[in-house]
Amino acid sequence: MSIAAILVTFALVDNVVLSLLLGVNPPQGVPGSLRRALGLGASLATLACLASLGAWGADTMALVPLGLDFLRTPVYVFLIAGLAWLLRKALQRFAPRLLPSVSFPEAAVNAAALGVVLIIRHGSYTAAEGLVAGLAAGLGYALVMAVLSAIRLRLEVEQVPRAMRGLPLQLVSAGLLAFAFLAFDRAFLARVLGG
């Protein structure tokens, strides 16, 4: 698969939030600001890129040669948790001002990263393709979170029935956005990218 096809597939066609329902944390809801939404997207992109590279290395160097394929999911979980912890510590040390907008250890981002890594490894992507797919998944996540955040901010100034305030309205907004993303399907991808 070409790099452009991987980018479009993971960012739009198989969007992490809208198509795969990964990385959604209903109690927390949608981030309230564009900066927070972009920070979450950057968190997922960084974590998914590094985790896909680590998962590829674990598969090719240890799990498959030793016949331990059945341990993939637990290894990926520990890999992602460790990477999230290391990235948070690196941010605390080198860029503490970024911490309020970037949140690595959140369960939603970690679950999305695990889902992306499992999809990448199940699809037998190479290390470079896995990096691109992780980046595209993070970009798609940031796009959806930014759009939902903008919708939420717009709806805060509108008159909304009491029963629809909060989570119900967020779910309706996400559902309508998911319908909009249905325009990006595999047929669209084949027509646009010629593959």
Summarize the structure.
By secondary structure, the protein is an all-alpha fold.
Structure description:
This protein has 195 residues and is mostly helical. It has one domain (3-190). The protein is built from seven helices and no strands. The protein is globular. It starts with a helix and ends with a helix. The model has no long low-confidence stretch (mean pLDDT 81).
Features:
mainly alpha, about 200 residues
Strand and helix map with partners:
Elements: H1 3-13, H2 34-63, H3 72-94, H4 107-122, H5 127-156, H6 167-181, H7 186-193
Helix pairs in contact: 1-5, 2-3, 2-4, 2-5, 3-4, 4-5, 5-6
Shape: globular
The largest sheet, given as strand count, sense and whether it forms a barrel, is: none
**Count of extended strands:** 0
- What does the average pLDDT come to? 81
- Which consecutive residue ranges, at least 5 long each, have pLDDT under 50? none
Distance between termini? 9 Å
Helix/strand-derived category reads mainly alpha
State the helical fraction. Answer: 55-70%
Beta-strand content estimate? under 5%
Number of domains: 1
Integer-rounded radius of gyration: 18 Å
